[in-house]
Amino acid sequence: MSRPVRSVLGSHTVPTPALSVLALICLVMLFVNPAFLSPGNAGAVAEQSAVPAVLAVGLTFVILMGGIDLSLEGIMAAASMSTALLVANDHSGMNLGLWAIAVGCAVGAVLGLVAGTTVALLRVPSFIVTIGTWQIGLGIAQLLFGETPPRVTDESFRGLADSKAAGLPGIVWIALLVVALGLVLQHYTRFGRYAYVIGGSEETALLSGVPVRRYRAASFVLAGATAGLAAVMATARSGVGNVGIATGLLFTTIAGVVIGGTFLTGGRGGVLHSLVGVIVMVAIGNAMVLAGISSYVQQAVQGVIVVAAASITLWRARERMRVIK
């Protein structure tokens, strides 16, 4: 292997450990159940990864700045119900068509703004604030829910998930576009560069004249907007507005970000790392299903993997976190 290749793989810009885990999963499944490597199953993994990948893009910037956002499931619930009631459906007379997508993203962005403003201005820990906004979003969704879930009848909206291009569903292409935009934001904008500075050392960022509060609040708005878009994608896929549409996605997304190599302490990682981590999480679940492993065992295995990944990722940062034992 040439020195430039070794240099790239050994740097923090490429999620080499997560890619190695993904390669190991493929190697093991080659002997356990070769169907895992079939084009059809690869497409299924891509489709299952689309929604958490979009969530991970926004969440990555929050974590890069040293924060955490636990409100994603509540935001998705509110955005899903809002979107389903604004496109053609069997509950309301509204029919905004694809404009409802913008409304779903806006619902998420507003809830993200509430969280971000509270964290930035009042200096309240982000995990406490976002647990609160999770419940706010969930409460809004339950108020909109009524007696039965609204069923979407807008075919153009359902087409976001049903239509295929190059063999992949529309939601996969949307996810790829969001990831590409996230990479541009990370590498080519002031927001992306400052995310690393703030996460690396907030004091240094302040002394350098970086408006930390503004950028920190903006990261939560971005995470909320991507959660709103993820809700739109999930609603188009299921065809109903659902309060529980995001159940389990918070774990998958945060675990994917950690496994990918984005430090929970901030300052290191990125969108590509989080994307690979999400794919690893989805691939592990998919592989265990094909291997016939019990769902209870699957949960335990995924938990062990996340704890191990977090321990390995944060081992070098333990002094910074003041963890002695």
What does this structure look like?
The chain has 325 residues and is an all-alpha fold. It has 14 helices and two strands; from the N terminus they run αααααααββααααααα. Strands 1-2 form a two-stranded antiparallel ribbon. A hairpin with a 2-residue loop joins strand 1 (164-165) and strand 2 (168-169). The radius of gyration is 20 Å and the shape is globular. The chain starts with a helix and ends in an 11-residue tail after the last helix. Residues 4-11 and 320-325 have low confidence and may be disordered.
Q: State the strand order across the main sheet.
A: 1-2
Order of helices and strands: HHHHHHHEEHHHHHHH
User: Which outline best applies?
Assistant: globular
**Count of DSSP E strands?**
2
* Strand percentage: under 5%
Observed structural traits:
325 residues; mainly alpha; two-stranded antiparallel ribbon; disordered C terminus
